[in-house]
């Protein structure tokens, strides 16, 4: 069993909290020392109470699914002796009302584009299998109800 932690710190400072116009900007701290500015999404809480330059929970959710898939994909590739040079994913998420009528991330779509080098290059079928296996292994995808999709971007093979 593994345990993970993160700290979230928000402070009112001199804002009038009771008028509901306080800043949603906060600090996210992780165990390795990384600090990331956080905020609500401007699409949820309007500017200037939100900070568009900070990480919002919805972006973090999409990013964690994308990152987990990538890490597992790299594992699948190295096990098969394929040399990955670059992995890029322009992942997207859709927030809307779900079947229970609650606003939720209903779909996250990954768009991984992977570049390989070397004498041994994967076929389209091998790429599909590695993406499938990465999805099945991803801890984050296994932890959510969201429909997590993977739509790889393939260049010339």
Structural features:
three-stranded mixed beta sheet; 2 domains; 157 residues; alpha+beta; GMP Synthetase, Chain A, domain 3; 3 helices
CATH class of the largest domain: Alpha Beta
Shape type: elongated
CATH H level, superfamily name of the largest domain: K homology (KH) domain
- What class do helices, strands and sheet pairing give? alpha+beta
CATH architecture of the largest domain: 2-Layer Sandwich
By DSSP, the count of extended strands is: 8
Q: Low-confidence parts, pLDDT < 50 over ≥5 residues?
A: none
Percent range for β-strand residues: 25-35%
Mean pLDDT equals 95
Total domain units: 2
* Sequence of secondary-structure elements: EEEHEEEEHHE
Strand order of the largest sheet: 1-2-3
Count of separate DSSP helical elements: 3
Q: What level of helicity do the residues show?
A: 25-40%
């Amino acid at each position: 069993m593994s345990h993970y932690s993160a700290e979230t710190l928000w402070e009112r400072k001199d804002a009038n909290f009771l008028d509901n116009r306080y800043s949603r900007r906060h600090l996210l701290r992780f165990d390795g020392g990384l600090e990331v500015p956080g905020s609500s999404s401007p699409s949820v809480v309007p500017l200037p109470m939100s900070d568009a330059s900070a990480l919002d929970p919805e972006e973090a959710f999409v990013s964690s699914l994308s990152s987990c898939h990538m890490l597992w994909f790299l594992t699948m590739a190295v096990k098969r002796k394929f040399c990955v040079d670059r992995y890029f994913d322009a992942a997207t998420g859709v927030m809307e009302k779900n079947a229970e009528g609650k606003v939720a991330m209903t779909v996250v779509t990954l768009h991984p584009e992977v570049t390989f080098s070397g004498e041994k290059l994967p076929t389209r079928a091998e790429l599909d299998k590695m993406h499938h296996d990465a999805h099945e292994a991803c801890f984050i995808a296994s932890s959510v109800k969201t429909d997590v999709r993977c739509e790889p971007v393939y260049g010339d093979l």
